[in-house]
Amino acid sequence: MQHRFFAILTLVFLAVLAVASPPLAADEKVRSAKSWVSPSTPDGQPDLQGVWTNATITPFERPDELANKAVLTPAEAAELEKRAAEGRVDRPPKPGDVGSYNQAWFDSGTKVVSTRQTSLVVDPPDGRVPVTAAAEAQRDYNAAHNADSYQYMSVWDRCITRGVPAGMFPAGYNNAYQILQIPGYVVIFYEMIHETRIIPLDGRPHVSAGIRLWNGDSRGHWEGHTLVVDTTNYNSKGSIGTSAATARIKGIPQSEALHVVERFTRTGPDTIGYEVTIDDPPMYTRPWKAAFPLSLATNYRIYEYACHEGNHAVENVLSGGRALDKAVR
Fold first, then answer.
1. Whole-number Å distance between alpha carbons of 296 and 299
2. Alpha-carbon distance 2 to 311, whole Å?
3. Chain segment 303-316, per-residue pLDDT in tens
4. pLDDT tops 50 at residue 226
5. What is the Cα–Cα distance from 43 to 200, expressed in whole angstroms?
6. Which of 39, 96, 135, 294 could hold 283 in an S-S bridge, CB 3.0 to 4.6 Å?
7. Does residue 163 contact residue 239 with C-beta atoms inside 8 Å?
8. 8 Å CB contact between 290 and 56
9. CA–CA separation, 252 vs 246, rounded Å?
């Protein structure tokens, strides 16, 4: 889509403008990690501030061929990264296919996550999301009617939101998050669709049950050095996965019963451990969890993700649908 083309153009500017700092030698990294003490903000919050990224080639759900394997060996991880690099080449689109961006515009990562886990989903133990048949049927119905009405389209395609926690899941590009902290609040700015989440820490209750929001109502508190964010009061219009990187989960709808608990833990000078537990009984047979690291990206520059300004996708998809309607009459 054209709006994504303009958004990902920022990666070229990043390559030109960012000034890379020299890498630490291996022994320096070890000394740095051993001497690291978790920092605090001036008002005493554990410090999560900075620009963080999560691009990775680790799949969202565990592949069938790794059904009984939770963690890769170093050799297996290296082989997977090698194969991913070999497959990262541009090929002409098939006849009748308009094609997509070339590799210069993607930023889907080159490495597996540092934990070497075989999927971002870590619970259930098989790395598979326990989706109900009804949720899959609704996903498939919406996909089949994508060109019939904007109401069946992804909320990401419509430039509304990527969702919470969907916006935290790695995508093909623009995988950056800037965390800011002020007394009583943690603020997360998402590069994708330039959304800003303001999370109060003062113990206030969630809004009343009659108020329903696209991204829910978030409330945070500290458990030691871990920021715990509890989110409820969702509407039933969004999706738990909006990027193709979530594969089978893309388009699974959310219900008003959705309850999300996220945990952000600073685990080193350049790492935040992120995990999220998702409970939505109409959509899943049990709660499930995803976990992965966020990496500090000191030289990353976040540019505006001008979604609506360049978004011709909705108009083009619907006009294409009407052309197909005429063709079959």
1. 9
2. 6
3. 888 888 878 888 88
4. yes
5. 15
6. 135
7. yes
8. no
9. 10
Rounded CA gap, 213 and 278, in Å?
Answer: 17
> What CA–CA distance (Å, rounded) separates 36 from 29?
10
SS3 category, 230: strand
Assigned token pair, 310: 């360049």
Q: Residues for the chain: how many in total?
A: 329
Share of residues in the chain with pLDDT > 90 (%): 68
Helical residues (DSSP H) of 240-312, grouped into ranges: none
For residue 92, count CB atoms less than 10 angstroms from its CB and return exposed for 0-12, middle for 13-18, buried for 19 or more.
exposed
Q: Which residues contact 65 (CB under 8 A, 6 or more apart)?
A: none
pLDDT-based confidence at residue 4 (cuts at 50, 70, 90): very low
Structure tokens at 138: 């609704």
- CB-CB contact of 230 with 219 (8 Å): yes
Confidence of residue 100 (pLDDT cuts 50, 70, 90): confident
Is pTM beyond 0.70 here? Answer: yes
